Amino acid sequence: MYNMSMNKLSVEKRTRVIKALVEGNSILATCRITNTAKGTALRLLRDVGKACAEYQDKNLRNLLCQRIECDEIWSFCYAKAKNVPHNKQGQFGYGDVWTFVAIDSDTKLVLSWLVGLRELEHAYAFAKDIKKRLSNRVQLTTDGHRMYYEAIKNTFGNDIDYAMLVKYYGNTGEEYGRYSPPKCTHAKPKLIKGSPDMTKVSTSYIERQNLTMRMSMRRFTRLTNGFSKKIENLEYAVALHFMYYNFARPHKTLTNPYPKTPAMATGISNHIWTTEEIIGLIDK
């Protein structure tokens, strides 16, 4: 029989649910795998996601990053924009949603993220969150989107070495297939502020993180029905993903002299977290 209350779930059962979610399973698939009621799984996601968001907000501070890459990744909530009912159009959480992400190029730590809209207001909020987590001047790279130009330049002032990697595209993606993006013909680094090392202007790591997100969160997988129906659940899933990514999942590029997570490489953790430890944040 299904467990109808999260309070009745054993630690082992909670662990199985969370492990299923962070490995890219949808809520319904997780329920089938773990024999858990949908409402129970969602309540667990809510409580763990909230705890993960609070823990990382408190501990991802005074970071000694050197190079940061930023980007935004598209998803949608409730329904695709064209299918949103008239009475819900224009409301945040219905239709297109963009998740802004900042990654440390050296330690691969995701130090900041924001679930919002691809607009200047949310780009400003994202830039301000990055700034408050740093303890030193950094080199920062984004793509050529105008909102980044305004938000980064005005938030950091002269205390930033900032460059854009401006990408140029050929024809539309129609000739490559309905769901294929336009082909990028070339990219050109552009100095915006300070004195960045132009040989290290790149968005490769953050674009790889985009793939990790799509593979690890069913809500971001294209062409499925696993998308979020409520914006709050999307935010909880993102917080859980980055908690697991930063603290519990050894990064394949961080193996010398032993496997490390991004949090360990940054110096804010001294061990690889277990899923049980992440769930334990609820009680703390």
Q: Indicate the multimeric state.
A: single chain
Q: Report the radius of gyration as a whole number of Å.
A: 20 Å
Q: What is the number of helices?
A: 9
Strand order of the largest sheet: 3-2-1-4-5-6
- By secondary-structure content and strand pairing, the structural class works out as alpha/beta
Give the topology string: H per helix, E per strand.
HHHEEEHEHEEHHHH
Q: For the residues shown, what is the average pLDDT?
A: 93
Kindly estimate the percentage of residues that lie in beta strands according to DSSP: 15-25%
Low-pLDDT regions: 1-6
Question: In percent, how helical is the residue content?
Answer: 25-40%
Number of strands: 6
Query: How would the global form be characterised?
Result: globular
Largest β-sheet summary: 6 strands, mixed
The rounded distance between the terminal residues' Cα atoms is 30 Å
Describe this structure in words.
This protein has 284 residues and is α/β, with parallel strands linked by helices. It contains 9 helices and 6 strands. Strands 3-2-1-4-5-6 form a 6-stranded mixed β-sheet, with helices on both faces. Helix 5 links the parallel strand 4 (139-143) and strand 5 (161-169). Helix 1 (11-22) packs antiparallel against helix 2, helix 3 (38-59) crosses helix 7 and helix 4 packs across helix 5 (146-156). The radius of gyration is 20 Å and the shape is globular. Mean pLDDT is 93; it is low at 1-6.
